[in-house]
Fold this sequence. Notes:
Layout: H1 3-21, H2 42-46, E1 76-80, E2 83-84, H3 87-99, H4 104-115, E3 126-129, H5 134-140, H6 144-156, E4 164-166, H7 178-181, E5 189-191, E6 198-206, H8 210-220, E7 226-234
Parallel strand pairs: 1-7, 2-7, 3-6, 6-7
Antiparallel strand pairs: 4-5
Helix pairs in contact: 4-6
Amino acid sequence: MPISAAIREAADRLAWAGALLAPPLCVACRRPPAHPGDRLCADCRAQLPWLRGPRCPRCALPSPCGARCPMAGTRIARSWTPLAYEGPARAVVRALKLRGAVGLAELMAAQMVATAPPGLLAPGVTLVPVPTPAARRHRRGFDHAALLAAAIAERTGLPVAACLRRDGPAPRQARARRSERLAAGRVAVEVCGPVPPAALLVDDVHTTGATLRACAGKLLANGALQVSTLAYARALR
């Protein structure tokens, strides 16, 4: 069975089990939505923090960014995220990763695809999920970035290459300071399959970019000619 199909089958099983155990509440405010099955109520959907206006093409922060761009010095071609990692968008990410609300990958992918700039999801691009450390993947029962990549692939027809894996210890990035996140060797990534020439790294949140840097560096060192990134939400501070 292809890896994307296996991931989707596991996600369906988790979603089915979750529906039996939990009422269909909005994942952000925990109130019943107007339409059963909606993952966000109308109020929380209206409060999604869309990032509008000029953006730094390399790090996806609101412009101007210039010389202080956190992705300066990397060979990442460009980065894109549709939302700020705040409010309902933060709640969506946390529900997916921490509460196993795997059905949210479809909603997130739809919003990522609908807002992607021209060329980012063009034919010839291959989706590469940012790998989750094995211990966390086993604990959760799924890989959130792989779910997002599979859902984006279904909407775009682009192929998925799960060609990276995490290696060594897996320090928690969420509670680390920026200097700790960016420390050399903190994020260890290895290649575990053929590397596509044009890779689009897919993840849930773009924070300091430390993990994206490590993944891009490994892809570029192993045959990729261009690497860009696509995440659901961007941390603004």
